[in-house]
Amino acid sequence: MQEFTTISASSFDPAALATTLTEKSAEGWAIVSIVPTGGDITAFLSRSTGQSAAAAVTAVEATPAPAAQPAPVAAEPTGWAVAPEPAPAAAPMAPIVDPSPAVSYQPAPAAQPAPAYQPVAAASPAVPAGWYADPAGRFELRYWDGGTWTEHVSRAGQQFTDPPVA
User: Fold this and answer.
1) 75: which residues sit within 8 A by CB, 6+ positions away?
2) Rounded distance, CA 148 to CA 144, Å?
3) Predicted pLDDT of residue 50
4) Where does the record place the DUF2510 domain (predicted)?
């Protein structure tokens, strides 16, 4: 047969619960479960009923009566209606050090004029100079100088001069 008991302590003072559990363990109690209950922590303990009488006799014979001790006061946090503790005094201020001397003024170098405009060299023609079909269609071939059509034309191998039509 088993017997059960509970032990409760403030959740802000877990050391009190540990001390009580150690005492109960010496009496033969085993922890079944520890659960939070509101603002407290509750431990559920069990032991065999045959151990209670033997443990009680052993406890009486072996242990003298403990002296009455005041219950430990839990250090719970202050509530919303309690004034806060004053702030600690401020640490003394460090001495003020004179700043290092400023670096002497160095004027910027004089502005240099931009280089004169250099037109970009004409790109090499995509189509090399040579005889090609006359784009105006008046002659069989017209000479392309690499940049523009010229007045030099050809028909059936004979060369002529014909100004190009724009």
Assistant:
1) 12, 13
2) 6
3) 72
4) 129-159
Look at the chain and report how many structural domains it folds into.
2
Decide if 13 contacts 74 (C-beta within 8 A).
Answer: yes
pTM score of the predicted model? 0.32
- Domain's final residue, options 21, 43, 62: 62
What digits encode the pLDDT tens for the residues 12-53?
A: 888 888 899 999 999 999 999 989 888 888 999 999 887 555
**79: helix, strand or coil:** coil
Q: Is residue 157 part of a domain?
A: yes
For residue 134, the enclosing domain spans: 130-161
Give 3-state DSSP helix, strand, coil % of the chain, rounded to 5: 15, 25, 55
With respect to residue 15, please indicate whether it lies within any of the assigned structural domains.
yes
CB 53 within 8 A of CB 3: no
CATH code where residue 40 lies: 3.30.1660
